[in-house]
Amino acid sequence: DYQIFAEFNSESYSEPVPIHHFINDWNSPLKAGENAYTKNTLELGVAYESWTISWIHRIDYWLEFTDDTAYVHHSGENGNSIQSTNIYDINLKANHYRLNGLKLGYLHQVSSSVSVGAALTLMNAFQLVDGEIDGWLDTSDPARYQSELTVDYNYTTDELFDRPNIVEPTGFGAALDMMLIWMVTDETELRLVLED
C-alpha cells in the first residue's frame, strides 16, 4: 500500500538570548554565549513498503560569534550605551542556506524490535550567505569610537552593501542520513539518527 506523508521538523538553539528574541529584537537580558542555529525541514512524500521518496525544503542558519559581538549587537538593538574604555573583539561567522531536494529512503526491519535505515538526498541551494566579519571596536574615547572590520563572504543577495552579485554561488550537493530504531517496549522507542 502507498502512503502519502507530510512532515515538518524545526530545531533551534540560541545561547545569548531566547530564540524568539534572537529572531526578532534581542529585547531580553543578555547571557554569555557564542552560538545560535536553526534547522527547519519540510518534507512531502510517498512511502511504499520499505521505500520512501520525497521532496524537501530546508532553511538552515548557523552563527558563531564572540561574547563581545553579542554584547555590542544587543546594546545597539536595545538603544543601550556601549561601555566606554573597552576594546571589543568583533567576530561573526555565518552560514545560511535555503534549498530544495529530492530524498530517497529505505528502512529495513532487522528483527521485530530493531530497524535500520538510510536516505540519500540530492539538494540544490537557491539562497546562500556564507562568511565572516572580523575586527575590533575601540570605545576608549567616548566622543569618537574607532573600528576596523574585515568582511569576507559569499552570497546570493548582498545584505550588507547591496552590491550586485557578479558570480552567483552554486549549491548542488548530496547528504546521507542513517537511522537505527529500537522498540524497547510497546510504549518506548529509542532512535539514533545521523543527518547530513
User: How many strands, which pairing sense, and closed or not: the largest β-sheet?
Assistant: 8 strands, antiparallel
| Oligomeric form | single chain
Helix content: under 10%
Distance between the termini: 29 Å
Q: What's the tally of helices?
A: 2
Q: β content, as a range? A: over 45%
> How does the helix and strand content classify structurally?
mainly beta
Mass-distribution shape? elongated
Q: Total number of β-strand segments?
A: 8
Gyration radius over CA: 22 Å
Q: What order do the helices and strands follow? A: EHEEHEEEEE
User: Low-confidence parts, pLDDT < 50 over ≥5 residues?
Assistant: none
Average pLDDT metric: 92
Task: Note down, in words, how this protein is organized.
The protein is mainly β and about 200 residues long. Helix content is about 10%, strand content about 60%. It has 2 helices and 8 strands. The chain is elongated and about 75 Å long. The chain starts with a strand and ends with a strand. The mean pLDDT is about 90.
